[in-house]
Amino acid sequence: MSQMKQTRRNFLTSVGGVGAVIALSGAAGAKTASRFTVANDQFMLDGKPFQILAGEMHYPRIPREYWRDRLRKLKSLGLNTLTTYVFWNAHETSPGVYDFSGNLDVAAYIRLAQEEGLWVNLRPGPYVCAEWDGGGLPAWLFPEESGIARTSDPKFVGPMKAWFKRLGQELVPLLIDNGGPIILTQIENEYGAFGADHDYMRQVMEAERDAGFSGLLYTADPSQFVANGSLPGIVAGINFGTNYKAEEEFAARAKVRSDGPFFNSELWGGWFDAFGDLHATMEIPPLIDSLKWMLDRKMSISFYMLHGGTSFGWYAGANWDSKGYSADISSYDYDAILDEAGRPTPKYAAVKALFQNYLPAEAFAPLPPAEVPVTVPRFRLTEAAPLEPLLGKPVHQSSPKSLDALGQMHGLMVYRHRAEKPLSGVLKFVDVRDYALVRVNGITVATLDRRLKETSVAIDVPQGGVLELWVDTHGHCNYGKNIGRDQKGLIGQAILNGAPLSGWEQMGVTFDDISGLSFAAKPVAGPAFYRGTFNVTADGAVPGFTFLDMRGWGKGYVFVNGHNLGRYWSVGPQRAMFVPGPWLKSGVNEVVVLDLREAGERTLAGGPNEIWDLPGLVKA
């Protein structure tokens, strides 16, 4: 989902509606082909009016073992359709190298939805926003700052077409025309908020068609951008949130598109969080008011998000607005209808109570049994390991290069300069993306924080000394004009006292594999990994989830039994990391924490809930 940072940031929640004839015959077992069309301003399933009642959930943000549970909770709310993005950069991590295994088996996810009696609204991009790294666009498309993203430039369109062709091999058999559950396929995503190049939009549509995506297509934009982002003859959905009134949004749409179907393609029932910001919570009554208005008028809706889950690993994105760069946290709780752990919230109860006035009792599947969370008593991480053994081979450069230029898409980069003569003065860069430790002879002397627009530092390095900048990255911008222009690391020449400082070694680490670490029960100077174990006693065969309390730690990543839970940072607002039950073991479990801060807490505990605070913008 896109944010419209300049307008959306001041509002709060979202709503959606339903009505008309609700088709109760789900997609389960529907091996014979059906027809999904439009007639008389309505969606039609096999010639009968059909109202889409959808909830959005993203397969990479939910451990595969939880997929069925979350789908059943979607259906228990009375919804009949799953909405999901497809994340190009997660599947094609380097050109022509594809991964559709494990948690990335999107075809299995969609087949599971069909087994559960649900239809599917597919959002294949190529751009998805979604508070996801780069909006789903692979960083390898943009080794240097480029304006090709979401344009007709062959350097963008060519890889996009190849991607759609490969995705089609997975998903075309699951279209409704082929007996599958996919009833709608989106063209691009909120393109109208980015540009107005209808030739580009047609190229995206043609790429989808060429890849085999037959059937009904649609676009989705905020109402004020429908003219920019829609195409003639293609269904035009609109996206809005709680602090927007449904009546006003559809009236704005009508000025450009008076024809139906009338589809609230993203109903923002919550909002995302950025490091250092306040935790976003959205009121329930405005959501219910807009939802009721749409239900009374038989409109289709899709809740964004029904369940947000977690942006595990390095996949959380970032935004750019008038304040500058803003990195998203790993939790994608979104103050959604189901929380990060998949539990129904008060919003769930309020929405279901409203739906019960419109839907028959048989529309509501029973809720699955509740998962019992695990409580982990506080324990100490007694072993430590330096980060350096994970660093790649040094690359020698006259001037610092971005990670992207060197083929590294995420992680950390160490920039090293050996002083042949004393260095003293102010060292400046065009930009520092996104957080840097400035170290002299192995001692951290300063930090540079992109949020605070810090691009220079006073240094004093003796002759023969070693100057290092350890640059930790956050997500590539997923919204706005900076898409494709957010390369990571040190940007521009290093300038000391007005003159270039040449001669740098660069060594990177992605944290995709930390098996090369060597731990010992003794302190480590500088940024380090810390390891400990905790025991879990499961009542059943599989333990429940827990949230690891990170209060007192600095900045880094958390790994449990080899799974990267994502980024943590003491600036908040997220103070705990979600650990899915399927990633735990009955018995001994290992946790490894990378902390860039050299002094801090070295204990952890696990509890049943996320821990939020309201820190404002502070410097770590």
Beta strand %: 25-35%
Q: Give the class from helix and strand content and strand pairing.
A: alpha+beta
> How would you sum up the global shape?
globular
Give me the count of strands: 36
The mean pLDDT is 93
Helix % is 10-25%
Q: Which residues sit in consecutive blocks of at least 5 with pLDDT less than 50? A: 2-26, 615-620
Spatial order of strands in the largest sheet: 4-5-8-9-10-11-12-13
Kindly provide the radius of gyration, computed on alpha-carbon positions and rounded to a whole number of angstroms. 25 Å
How many helices? 10
Question: Sheet bearing the most strands, described?
Answer: 8 strands, parallel, barrel
Report how far the terminal alpha carbons are from each other. 29 Å
Care to give the gist of this entry?
With 620 residues, the protein is an alpha+beta fold. The protein is 15% helix and 29% strand. It is built from ten helices and 36 strands.
